[in-house]
Amino acid sequence: MSCKKEPLRAMNADHEELLQELESIDAIYPGYMTVHTADSTIVSIKVPQHEYVTVQISFPADYPSKSSPRVMELRFDDDSRLVSHDAKFLLHLFQEVMDSAFYQNGRNAVCVFDFLTELDRVLYTEPEQNDRAVEKVVLPTDPFEHWYASQPITDRGSTFMGFATRVSSETEAFQRLETLKTDSKIRKGSHAMCAWRIKQRLQDDKREIIFQDSDDDGETAAGSRMLHLITIMDVWNVMVVVVRWFNGAHLGPDRFKHINSAAREAVLNAGF
């Protein structure tokens, strides 16, 4: 465990719990952890059994009493079979695993060891299960399966088109987004902005985890406006995408009107 040698003082009970947790993990997996800050609130840990993956974790001040740790970054060895996967999808998947471990343990309970243990299940498949595992992640032949589209909107040479789909988890949402992007016309788009709102019920529990976020994909502020739109429409378990094909003519604020119109129509067409 590479960190500064001077003793760290626990500022409160939460911080003391964190330090004890990190000491335990370092004892179980010596040499796997690197501490980046003097107060030990940002660390990097190699995933046991899958040392080609390193996960950087940030601990909020109220962990473990209230908040779950945040997965900040993933790093892979050059020979990793995961480097070709979508990094943002994997980051969200790891965060889902972290949140699940945190809420299953209950508040005031540390969760990083359980998080690392669960990652072994995520990253490894028993040989006899290979066929079933591949079957679960095979992408549909049709990139537009499960998606509902708006009519295209054209203005001064730029075209906007919205797509919406029902999803039950962030993992499913990003899998469908990556599938949509396999279409040749979608790949030619200048931007594929998206927003999502998801309520996911914890297994064997009445509680729900809420995920909502957006991605501008280079069209500044577009994703947050789409998120605002589906928020005021009060729709859940949805991912909405607007693709823009840009010909060089700047539209100014009018582009946001077209983005929201395409997104709204797609959401309505999806039956929300």
Automatic annotation (TrEMBL):
UniProt-annotated location(s): Cytoplasm
Classification via Pfam families: Impact_N, RWD
Record's GO cellular component terms: cytoplasm
SMART domains linked to this entry: RWD (SM00591)
GO terms, biological process: GCN2-mediated signaling; regulation of translational initiation
Entries under InterPro entries matching the protein: Impact, Impact_N, Impact_N_sf, Ribosomal_Su5_D2-typ_SF, RWD_dom, UBQ-conjugating_enzyme/RWD
Location (main, coarse): cytoplasm
Keywords recorded for this protein, A-Z: Cytoplasm, Repressor, Stress response, Translation regulation
Domain of life: Eukaryota
Domain RWD residues, every copy: 20-126
Recorded family membership: Belongs to the IMPACT family.
Annotated protein name in UniProt: RWD domain-containing protein
Organism from which the protein derives: Torulaspora globosa
Lineage: Eukaryota, Fungi, Dikarya, Ascomycota, Saccharomycotina
